[in-house]
Amino acid sequence: MIATSFIDTVYLLVYSTQMLTVTIDRSLQDSVYEQVASQIRQLVASGALVSGTTLPPVRQLATELGVNLNTVARAYRLLKAEGFLVIRERAGVSVAAPAKAIGPTERASGLHELRTALARLRQAGMKPDELRRLTQRELLAVIGTSEGATNE
Amino acid sequence: MSEATVVNLFLMVRVLIVGAILLVIPHITRKGLLFGVYVGEDVVKGQPGRQLLRSWRHRCLLAMLLSLVIGLGISVAGAPVAGNLTGTAVLLLVALVLYLQTYSKARKLVTPTAEGQAEIAVASLEIRSTREAGFAKLACAICIGTGLGAVAYAVVAYFEMPGMVPTMADSDVLGEKSIITFIIIPLLNLAVSPFLALVAVMTAGAKTTLRGGSGGHSKEAQDAFRVAYTNLVSGAALLFCAFLTLLSVQIVRIGLSEIELIHAIVSVGVAAGVLVVASATGVIWVVKRYGQGGAFRESGSVEERLTGSLADNSHWLMGLFYYNTDDPSMMIEKRFGVGYSFNYGNRKAQLMLLTVLALWVGLSVLALVGGMT
Fold it and tell me: Mean pLDDT of all residues in chain A?
């Protein structure tokens, strides 16, 4: 009995740290598909979801979240278009391998988005120091973790 | 022991079992739920929650006492069977009224924080294993195969029977043979047993309702409960199929004059006893080990709040029936009770339930109109 409880506890600890989740909040202004896409994007960028990882089928994720199938399908399609996911008919949805080199168009487009986002935050009242700290933290979340994952 | 004593004993045992179920159910649910309402984890632990539970206990005990007094009173007055039935009916009716009253009180305890939890849903990014449904699918195939076999056996045997066969009421009395008498139970078997197994398959795919921020603990607990419950329903489907197959075979054997009615009654009675005892033992085991939806294994994550459908009070009718047309899931954990409930707003679930209901009604009408002897 004690041994079973011990194994259960260890299993729970390991299991709970490994499990990745997606959370939606309908009270937010962002649409549900954007919330799903944003979190998966973040997980891929941070290295928590490595390339080749298979994601749940549309039906499973939609059922668990209690949302329409089209909502999850739309999020997956968006991430596919952005190069984060690969959708194959039989193999399902999996995380795409990162591109080896960035093209000039993607670089220009990304830079434009980054500048716009930073300008919006500054305009919204964020102080320069605060903006710097936020940028560093987000950068660390993406580069730091993914480098760590690569090294492992 | 007189007949009246036996009937009274049955009433007492039934009242005790039903009463025990009513007393236990509020204590096995997921934390945060109170009588079919998501009131929030703090409220359940707090004074209002405890007071509601205490009041439920007292009133259930009173209901048990009332039903016993009425049932045994009628029995003493000279009608033990009527007393038995009335006592049971009183208990069920009073329990329903008590539940609705308590549910209504629980609704008033909902906090704005708890109400807001319905807006949040958490899902795991792990792919669900298809092995969970393996036993249920096997049970489904066995039930269909056995059901078809029983139908074929009844049809073949019917044509071997003489024109006049022993009746089901008294095997010494002969009556004209009727295909309805021999085919109705195999058809019922073919309709109901695979449906039960199909429910098990659907249970394996039922949605999980995770707690925000501690998905791992919550998911593990629910997965363990779901696997155990799926296996339990699959086993019950197999036992039910075996019981109905035995019943249909024994009816045919009476028709062929191979056995006496009393032998058939004994064997079918034993099978029914095994079915009831095994199913009840299974339910008790699952509840004791896991709690409803794995509630007992969520320790470590009960401080986190429930999310999604279980926290969504607006889509539950009386805390018992889930109706959400926007939710693609067909099965969801019960809020009050043991196991899983259909999403009655789901088109596929509606179609499935209507089909089974139509089959059930159709077979009953066939049995009545066709003159089952």
Answer: 82
How many Å apart are CA B83 and CA B67, to the nearest integer? 9
pLDDT tens by residue, A40-63: 998 998 888 988 999 999 999 999
What per-residue confidence (pLDDT) applies to A14? 44
Residue listed under structure tokens 């009628």: B74
A122 and A75 both lie in a single domain = no
So what's the pLDDT on residue A147?
A: 53
Residue A85 shares a structural domain with residue A136: no
B101–chain A nearest CA distance, Å? 30
Residue A133 belongs to domain spanning: 104-151
Closest CA to A21 of B214, B331, B298: B214
User: Chain B contact for A43, CB < 8 A?
Assistant: yes
Write down the pLDDT at residue A16: 45
Cβ contacts of residue A36 below 8 Å, gap of 6+? A22, A24, A61, A65, A71, A72, A75
d(CA A76, CA A59): 12
Enumerate the residues of chain B whose CB falls inside 8 A of the CB of residue A63: 205, 207, 327-329
| DSSP-H helix ranges across chain B | 3-24, 41-45, 47-76, 80-107, 112-116, 134-160, 179-204, 215-255, 261-290, 347-369
One domain, residues A6 and A68: yes
Q: How confident is the model at residue B177 (pLDDT cuts 50, 70, 90)?
A: confident
Contacts of A49 in chain B (CB under 8 A): 125
Whether residues A86 and A108 share a domain: the answer is no
- What does the pLDDT read at residue B2? 79
What is the model's pLDDT at position A67?
92
Residues A72 and A38 reside in one and the same domain? yes
Per the CB < 8 A criterion, the answer to whether B259 and B253 are in contact is yes
- In this prediction, the answer to ipTM > 0.85 reads no
- Terminal Cα distance for chain B, rounded: 33
Domain count, chain A: 2
Please report the pLDDT score of residue B332 as a whole number: 93
Q: Report the residue from B125, B128, B327 with minimal CB separation from A22.
A: B125
